[in-house]
Every structure is written in C-alpha cells, then in structure tokens.
Write a structure and sequence with these properties.
Layout (H helix, E strand, L loop, with lengths): L3 E7 L6 E3 L2 H9 L7 E2 L33 E2 L8 E7 L7 E12 L1 E12 L2 E4 L12 E3 L21 E8 L10 E10 L15 E12 L1
Antiparallel strand pairs: 1-12, 2-5, 3-4, 5-11, 6-10, 6-12, 7-8, 7-9, 7-11
Length: 219
C-alpha cells in the first residue's frame, strides 16, 4: 500500500473545542461537544503560519490545498496569567494503518501539547488504552506553563517567540472484524505570562496558532 494524505487540522473557531484542561478539551473535541474558541488578531510580534501562496486546490498535487490557513485563537477576553486548553480531532477511521504526524505550532506564551488516540466505546469516544507507541503519554512542553502567577513575566527579548515543530509515527490497533472506530486528537494548554514588571501598561495579548498534517499507509 502507498502512503496517502489523511488530513490537515488547523487552529480555527469551528472544529477546535475548549476545556478546563487538556483532558477535558480532548474529550470535548473527540465528541464535538462544548464551546469553541474566539479568533484573535495577530499581534505585531507574533509570527504567522501560512501556506505557500500557490498551495491551492487548483494545483495538480496539493493534498491540503483546500484547507485554509490557521487562525489565531483564544478564549476571550484574555487576562494576565490565564491558562486555556484547546483540542481538535481527526476524521474517524477503522482500517489498521501506519500514521505519520507533523505538527507546527506557535503560542503566546507557554504551551503544552499532546497527541492521543481515541476510540469509540459504547456511545462515546474515549482515550484508547493502551496508547500506541509514538503517542502514549508524551507531553510536549514549550516555556514554563505551570508558574505564571508566581512571577514569570515577559521580558525583552521575549524568550517565547519560537515556532515549535514536532513529528511522530504510530500504528493504529488491529481491527479484524472492522468494528472498531478511532480518532486522533491533538490538545494544547496555553498560558499567558504576566506583563513585564517595568512596563505594566503594555498590551498583554494571548493566542495559539497550529497546523498538523497526517499521512497514513493502510496495512
């Protein structure tokens, strides 16, 4: 079998869901429940994740050319020290497959991310157990998300202004009678740092932008 495009997921205000934490956001996304984030304007100091201008559905081979560029998203209104959890799910699949996943993300300010497999059990998608090797409990960390109210402040040059990149591979579980159904769920937890101590009146925006490309080889 050949490696084929499966799906591109991007930050937006329709398919991304909020939660009190990453686990709840992931459950909400997997089951299309809860509330969606707000779009926020790009702040001047933020980079922007964008496709090439000619990467469109009109090209001979552009598997994700019809997917719009990602939005900057947040749970408005933003506040100092605020932490917001987001998640998005893939389409449902059943056939055992080898998957390749490529993630690129930026957040103001600190973020954690996790990629998990969910399975439809009874009437609900829940986190699959055990998780396939390559997903498991690996938590991606950028910045220091856990201490904003203890004094982490934005200082120049801002040490959080990096675009983060990650990739992984995994094999989905066996499905001999074709009754099992799965989803890939990407979740984030993003923290807005406190304003710079010597410039307390400066604006303190918050936002998340991401793309995740998924390819697979059906076994």
């Amino acid at each position: 079998m050949a490696i084929t495009p499966f799906q591109r997921l991007t930050s937006n205000t329709t398919n991304v869901f909020l939660g009190a934490n990453m686990a709840q956001a992931a459950m909400n996304a997997a089951n299309n429940a809860g509330t969606n984030p707000d779009v926020v304007a790009r702040f001047p100091e933020w980079p922007s994740l964008q496709k090439f201008e000619n990467d469109t559905s009109l090209q001979t081979f552009s598997p994700y050319g019809n997917v719009p560029n990602p939005d900057y998203i947040w749970d408005q209104p933003s506040s100092e020290g605020q932490t917001v959890a987001f998640a998005i799910d893939s389409s449902t699949f059943g056939n055992p497959s080898d998957f390749s996943i490529f993630l690129v993300a930026f957040a103001d300010n600190a973020m954690e991310a996790k990629i998990e497999l969910f399975e439809f059990i009874g009437s609900t998608f829940v986190k699959a157990a055990p998780q396939p090797a390559g997903l498991d409990e690996f938590l991606l960390v950028a910045g220091d998300p856990n201490m904003p109210t203890e004094g982490i402040t934005e200082t120049t040059p801002f040490n959080w202004q990096d675009i983060r990149v990650y990739s992984t591979v995994f094999t989905s579980p066996p499905n001999p009678d074709n009754t099992r159904r799965f989803k890939i769920v990407l979740s984030f937890e993003v923290t807005n740092y406190l304003p710079t101590a010597n410039n307390p009146n400066n604006p303190n925006p918050a936002g998340l932008q991401f793309m995740i490309d998924i390819y697979r080889n059906v076994l």
